[in-house]
Amino acid sequence: MHAQVLHAWGDALKYETVAVPKPRAGEALVRVEACGVGLTVLNYMNGNQARRADWLPRIPGHELVGTVVETGAGVEHPRVGERVMAYFYLACGHCDLCRLAHEPLCRNLRGNVGVSADGGYAEYCALPAFNLLPVPAGVEPVAATAIPDAIATPFHVSRRASIAPGDVVVVMGAGGGVGIHMVQMARLFGARVVGVDVGDAKLAAAREAGADAVVDTGQGDAAAAVRAAAADGVSVAIDFVGSRETLALCLEVLGKRGRLVCLTTFPGITADVSPRRLVHDEISVIGSRYASRWEMARAGELVAEGRIRPVVSEVVALERVPELHAKLRARTLIGRGAVAF
Ligand SMILES: [Zn+2]
Asked: How many domains does the chain have?
C-alpha cells in the first residue's frame, strides 16, 4: 500500500510502498477513505510531544475515517463493512480515569494514533477496536475527518469552561482547524463569540462560522478591539495559538469571573499570571486536553444533525500531503485540510 512515512522526528515525510498491516487480537483493519490534516500532526511529527526512537518509522495522521475490512480475534465491534472514525488517544479503557470518560488522562496511556501506532496517511490502518467509533449515517468521509479532533475538542472545551448563554467567548486562532469549529460550538452552547486571528481570509471564515465580531491581531490595539466587542468583559478566552503574546492577550481581556482555557503544549512557553489579578476578578485558568470517546460520539451527532458544519477547505491526494503541511506552517489554511483516497 502507499503511505507517507516519517523516519526521524522533525524530518520530512517519505512517500513509500509498505506492507498492509494485519490486525492483531483486539484490533480492526480499516481501509482509509479520508484523513484530516492539521497542526497537531505537525506538532507530533516535529517531536514536540515525544522523541522516542522505538516509535519510528511511523505513518502519521490521527483523524482517519474509513471502512472496516477485517477484524482480529475477539473483536465484536466494529464490524466488517462499518464506517468508523479514529479516537486519538491509545487509552487502556479500564483504569479509573478511563471509566470516568477521562481517557486522555488514562493512567496507562500508550501514546497516540499516528505517533506510537501507525495512522491514516496510508491506504490501510490497523487500530485497537476501542479506538474506532462509528461514523453517524449521512456524514461523508471527508466531513467526518473533522469530528475526532477538530469538533470533539471544542465540545470538550465548552464543557470544561462551562460555556453558557450570556457568556462572551474569545477564540484565539478562530480561522484555524480547531478554532473555526470552536466558534460554532461556543455559539451552539449559547455564547456570543469574538473571533481573533490574523488576515482577512481567516477572519472572513470565522465570521462565516458564526463569530459575532472579529479582531485582527495584526492591526492596531487588539486588546482594545476585543474589549470594545465585549461590553461587560470576556467570560472565556480560548487560546489555540499558544504563544506568549496570545496568552498575555487572553489574560488581559478577561473580565470578572473570566476563564482562560489553554490547549497548546509547546515546550518552553510560559505566561505571566498575577495572583492579585486572579483574586480581584476571580479568574480561572483551565487546561483542556482533547476529548473523551463519549464527547467524540456526541460531536458526530452534532454534525449529523447539521448543528455543526465541518470546515474542510482543501482536500488532496496522499502524495500531496506535504503541500498542505506547508500551508499549515505558513498559517494560510482555512479550517482543516484532508487527504482523500
Ligand atoms: Zn485508562
From this structure: 2
